[in-house]
Amino acid sequence: MSRPEHTAAANEFYNRRESKKYTESGRVVSIQRTMAARAIELLNLPKGKPLLLLDIGCGSAISSAQLGRSGHVWVGFDISRSMLELARGSRLKSGDVAEADIGQGMPLRAGVFDGAISISAVQWLCVKQTPDQDPARRLKLFFKTLRKCLAFDARAVLQVYPENTDQMDMLATAARNAGFEGGIVVDYPRSMKAKKFYLCLWKFDRMPSRTQAMTSTSDSLLPPTVQFSSGRKKKKGRRKSKIRGRGGELVGRHESKPSSSMKTGGTKGRPNKKRRRKRTL
Amino acid sequence: KTIVRLWCRRSSARGMRLLTHNLLINPMKGFEQAFPLKLIPTKITKEEIKFNAAFVVHLLPKIDYKVLLYAASTVGIKNLPAELPRPIDATQHVDLLKALHHTLLEIHVEEGKLVCPKSEREFPIKQGIPNMRLNEDEV
């Protein structure tokens, strides 16, 4: 089964028929809602306060409705008019939708959003939709304008379906180059079917002390700052560690490195004993 | 599929709110300062949503108030003050906050257009959805 991004451009793939099928599929709606709820959780927003949020690739506002249910007001953008026209009724009580191509840059003013989510949309930027499109340029413009329209302490959580590790790298690198830092959260990492990737981003500020001074309340919204200590720590023996986060560097999981169980094909050297995979989600 | 819907649920209003108008710019390169977009509404609806004073207070620093006054005038709202009091207080200025809530969140532009003040490029609003997509030759 070929991926949607290789079939047609997003607005052509999500034509009237596909859009209707997507929006009316109970299973799709349920998964989208769950992912939206997870993205909201990862946004780590201050509790009990209605905020202004952005939904990138909102489609028929399934994910946006989740933002509304959490008490927030939102603005959503999508490239497919067919999907947007299906955003109706109670979903639009808490926000507005607009038609836009995020690869052309977010058409938004600076510093206005308290957070941004995206469900299953941003990977479309990695693939050429027309022969003269430049995915690298589109990604750069998208992340640059996304960073601009976010408030200084706002986060963006982008759930993506990367085709391969190269695409995940492409996204993470473009985000970092645009002045974001953050990491990749992988849910259900051992299940090929259920695995979900969330690119969690916040603004990289080269002067963390300034950010600290400006923040009034929650510590959890702060980007990881460098901790200085005067004591001397004994250097522990060399261990092959997972990628540790440093200021300005994007922390990632070893997606390209197979875990030990995968190396042996899941049988631990005993070819007759095939480990039965538990189905999660 | 021959499922016939026997009930007709009236969809609530769908339209661009004035809050959204206050956030939109022309995405074309070099036009980031082309704000605000001129608002030319041809069809407007109103729909009440629950008033939350704290949220309106939270929104106000994000809003360009002069632009809000302009947008409000295009949809026939003239009762807003020329300037906002500072600091704005949720208990003291409740009536003002309610008026701002109505202006920002309860007016829906269903049909009309947004026009870039610099290039005069039009962004149509149809079925409440503004179209901010650029053509290939504009990118």
UniProtKB/TrEMBL annotation, chain A:
Domain Methyltransferase type residue range list: 54-141
Molecular functions (GO terms): rRNA (guanine) methyltransferase activity
Ranges of biased composition (kind: Basic residues): 231-245, 270-281
Biological process according to GO: rRNA (guanine-N7)-methylation
Region entry Disordered, spans: 213-281
Pfam families: Methyltransf_11 (PF08241)
One cellular component term from this protein's GO annotations in UniProt: nucleolus
Signal peptide: none
InterPro entries reported in the protein's UniProt record: Bud23-like (IPR039769), Methyltransf_11 (IPR013216), SAM-dependent_MTases_sf (IPR029063)
Protein name (database record): Methyltransferase type 11 domain-containing protein
Organism: Lotharella oceanica
From TrEMBL, chain B:
Gene3D superfamilies in the record: 2.20.25.10
GO terms, molecular function: protein heterodimerization activity
GO BP term (any one): tRNA methylation
InterPro entries: Trm112, Trm112-like
Pfam families, per database record: Trm112p
Protein family per UniProt: Belongs to the TRM112 family.
Protein name: Multifunctional methyltransferase subunit TRM112-like protein
Source organism: Lotharella oceanica
